[in-house]
Amino acid sequence: MYQKILVAYDGSEGSTLALTKAVKLAQLTGATLEAIWVKSKLPHYPETVSEIEGEREAGEVFFNQLQNEMETYSRQLNCNIKLVALAGHTAKTILNHALEGYFDLIVLGHQGHSSLWGVSLGHTTDKVSENAHCSVLIVR
Fold first, then answer.
1. Cα angle vertex 94, ends 104, 128, to 5°?
2. Architecture of domain 4-139
3. CA neighbours within 13 Å on the CB side: how many for 11?
């Protein structure tokens, strides 16, 4: 069925639900599982060089936190999960990585915006599901 599964993970509740579902699918199908976190590119129009360094350091701290979470999930769920961090536009980066890595399933969490738009797909989820070369599972 599936041989390579890519799950978008940023530590949010939606991405954690997507990760849990992706792990179950990987275990059922014998697929390999990789998680991706996409950080935005620097600079964000900083006023000083130290602001760039501060953003870079904050990104590293956050990625280390995600790695620790991934190690915990790997142990708890008895599944090997590789976490990669790439910089760029979130949807484009996920799509490019999935294509280049020959993934046959992308798993994403659904993310509502507000009570009015809560039933809509999040921007990244919408863009990935519209443009993916492979199947996409959106987890609610």
1. 80
2. 3-Layer(aba) Sandwich (3.40)
3. 13
Q: Give the torsion sign (CA, 45, 47, 51, 53).
A: positive
Q: What are the structure tokens assigned to 7, written together?
A: 């799950």
User: What is the C-alpha separation between 71 and 75, in angstroms, rounded?
Assistant: 6
The tokens of 65 are what?
């936190």
Return d(Cα 108, Cα 105) in angstroms, integer. Answer: 10
At 82-107, the pLDDT tens digits run 999 999 999 999 999 999 999 999 99
Tally of helices (H runs) and strands (E runs) in the chain? 4, 5
Domain boundaries, the chain: 4-139
Q: Tokens representing 38?
A: 């996409």
pTM (two decimals): 0.84
CA distances from 109 to 22, 38, 43, 132 (A): 10, 14, 27, 15
Token couple for 124: 């990244």
C-beta of residue 137 within 8 angstroms of C-beta of residue 2 = no
pLDDT band at 41 (very low <50, low <70, confident <90, very high): low
